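Whether sequence alone determines local backbone shape is best considered at the level of individual chains. When preparing material for the folding task, we compiled for one chain both its residues and its backbone structure tokens. No coordinates are needed to read the tokens, only the vocabulary itself. For completeness, the protein is quoted in full, as a sequence line and a line of structure tokens:
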Amino acid sequence: MEEQQSTRNHVERKKGGLITMPFIFANEICEKIAVVGFNTNMISYLTKQLHMPLTKGANTITNFNGTASLTPLIGAFIADSYVGRFWTITVASILYQIGMISLTTSAVVPGLRPPPCKGGEICEEASGKQLGILYFSLLLTALGSGGIRPCVVSFGADQFDESDPKQGKKTYKYFNWYYFAMGASMLVAVTVLVYVQDNIGWGWGFGIPTIAMFLSIITFVLGYSIYRHLDPSGSPFTRLLQVSVAAFRKRKLEMVPNSTLLYQNHDIDDPISRDGKLLHTNHMRFLDKAAIVTEQDKVKVGEKPNLWNLNTVHRVEELKSVIRMGPIWASGIILITAYSQQYTFSLQQGTTMDRRLTDSFKIPAGSMSVFTLLTMLITIALYDRIFIPIARRFTGLDRGITFLKRMGIGLVISIFATLVAGFVERKRKHVAFIHGLQDHPSSTIPISIFWLVPQYSLHGMAEAFMSIGHLEFFYDQSPESMRSTAMALFWTSISAGNYLSTLLVTLVHKYTAGPNGYNWLRNDNINKGKLENFYWLVTLLQVFNLVYYVVCAKMYTFKPLEVQRKVVDSSKVDEVQLVNPV
């Protein structure tokens, strides 16, 4: 009997680990190549191939991005509640594949897009049928993204058993290399794929990621037998609602004098706490009333209580964990607001500057994002190989520093990124004034576009610290049974940051308007605007956000977790430890 149990433990330890990473990363890399490749150059396809008006094409992309930002909540809910992460990723990848095949087909078959413009000016816009195929394709890819984005990162982290000392300490490495793989795939998309689309054809431009996605599905499924699979444990939202309702119903009860008197039931908690039980904390004690046992709550041994009236300490602490994560989640929104400017105003700056590398070749302004990606990749590599070993000597932590400190460093670097952007804009406008070009927005100002490299690079460095720290935070501090949902929250912070950017630009444009066309953000002539003031406004908002974040981080309470640690020695005896992750 003992030999059989030992054998089972030995087999379980072989599941997961670093060996699964190539299978999982293959899926994520191809998804990023497809999404970034589409988004970076999709406006060209819609306007030049489908002959859409610019505003309609822009709205199409906005609607697609908005839908793709919301669907991760649906995918995470399905994964956590019903089918698990593996099958959610697999089915979502197939949906994505179908959408990509449909889009590629429409780019290849002449009858599925309007004919070329006559004389270069008379253009026939895409018909309703042709647009229907486009919207159907984009909808399928948005649904596919919803299943892939929140589940791939958490499924990969699941491969490292937190109760196994040999695997649990490798999670921080996984997040670093996950983001590295994602950044590398984005770099390929904004360079190679965009080049193929512009110079070889849209058939190959869409066809290459379609083929890559097909291969990634095959690769991902082939790894099934070596993955560490965690079964879904029911709707996490239902459990959170049950605790809220039970606490409200018992709001008038007196608190028990000792937390040990609160309700515990391992039978109903075991399916949602494989890595260990959440222990009681003294924060938000009003929620503890959901775990107070009254006369009407008493049930026979072995029976399940009415969870709308009585909940366990573990389930109460799940809700507390989600609430505690909220303020830290919000701190990432401003970072994305600042980051998004490099695809709008920084790009607009670049179009006015000297972009010549040689007499016959100019750098596309949109390609400057390569410096963001390259810096991000270099920072991740140096962080993992140099910074962590050095920091570990001083802190004693396997990950070098806590993910909260890592996020704080990223926020500080982002402040310098927008601060530098403002000074570069003043330099650009000064050169325009010296050469008398301030009234000629279409003229090239004799200042190299490489002046923009510092702000792009600082944004990349900030993302390497903040975004990866954010991912680690969500995975580590979310309730075990809600990790896909937590990853979806990461994507919603990105969505919220972009929406906040839109709102901020709209408000600044409206309230800085003055006589004779004066405006910080002029539509007709960036040389006569005050873009540097906008950058510094964003800088100021980031300073306030940093102060807010420091306060939240100081007050944050890590979830205390009681886990069964597997002791790797000849005795094979399990040891209960209290884990307070940092």
Observations:
- Strands lie at 277-278, 353-354, 445-448, 561-566, 574-579.
- The chain has 17 helices and five strands.
- Confidence is low (pLDDT under 50) at residues 1-13, 564-582.
- The chain has three domains: 1-232, 236-319, 320-582.
